[in-house]
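hey so i finally got around to running the thing on that chain from the lab meeting. sorry it took forever, my laptop kept dying and i had to restart like 3 times. anyway pasting the input first so we r on the same page abt which one it is
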Amino acid sequence: MDLFDSAPALGEGAPLAFRMRPRHLDDYVGQQALVGPGKPLKQMAESQTVRSMILWGPPGVGKTTLAELLARASGAQLEQLSAVMAGVKEIRAVVERARQIKTQTLLFLDEIHRLNKSQQDALLPHVESGLVTLIGATTENPSFEVNSALLSRTRVYVLKSLTDDELIDVMRQALEDSERGLGRRAIETAPGVLEALARAAAGDARRALGLLETACDFTQREGEREVLYKEALWDVIGHQSSAFDKQGDAYYDLLSAIHKSIRSSRPDAALLYMARFIQGGGDPLDVVRRLCAIASEDVGNADPRALPLVIAAWDAYLRLGDYEGQRAIAHAAIHLAVAPKSNRIERAWKAAQSFVKSQPQVDVPNYLRNAPTKLMEELGHGDGYRYAHSEPDGYPAGDAHDCWPAELPKARFFEPSPFGQEKRFAEIMAWRAAKDEEANQAPGSA
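ok and heres what got predicted. didnt touch it at all, straight out
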């Protein structure tokens, strides 16, 4: 059955979002980088030659509709499966039907990321031979979820969330369309109504039309017209928040945005993404764990207070509970964003790890070794160790006591930055280096 032709027959009983699906690619709103003049999907439709592809994007941006429009434009037979319900048996049935017809078969496979390896392997040879043209749809990063063999035989197209202006266009079409939409009711919208619905829909056209359809149950009759006022929207969107899949890309994209905003010293942006993350259902403790990593990775010793402050915020959240505890996490995030930045701890640690991999044999000098028994004392463990607190200036100067294994080439891992407290560290380290040089040149130092 052609879903486009069936929509009018369903009348008012079908959801508005279903009834308003575009019938032609020119009616499609959004994704102009793909469907605009001269763009890839537009060219496929015009040439009536569709290639295997994966459409990657958030819900409600029109992945299913694009597949239907490409099938209609190319005259191909469209088969639709959901990877949630379909298995190898259903895929083989599609392949068998494809063998029996002369026209191109497009297989639209929704949530393709949910196919297991055996299901993907069953599909692969038929996509490779061209018997079936695959249009996969996914909200997850296909490079992680689709096996490389199948991925190499498809082109990935990224679909973006619709802008507020695009969502408003979609809703206006529905209000004006008297055949499939709400045009017969001649509904007028008060200023700000469509803008509020677009914001609540958060880039999802299907959600925008669903909210509009529900909101139109609250219009006021004024003579011959119906008017939808902004006050009526409270019952529709008043308490709605835009949630996301906690195992999906959006979850980790927001954590990444928090981290990079703090690294870039942008406290307002960090708070924006934190609020979006938590309001979408994210665990605040995932934020504070990320802050803990940032404290060492991106702030480091430029502000040694950063790490204990984050630990204190973590503890405060657990003691105060969620509502008040979120403020403690915001407190720590703002401090990290404003603090001077240094990645010298990260660089020093990676350099040390790399050095040890290249020098697996590291013998501890005798003077640094532990000597808890008489035998170990007799073997010279601890001999020559200089107790720093008994040294002038509290520092055992000179290369003879640099704690470095004698057989290893010297290396320096930690180079302080010129920012924050590390600037003072650099001054202290330079002073100690001068003391070493002085001790090395003293008579009998060798």
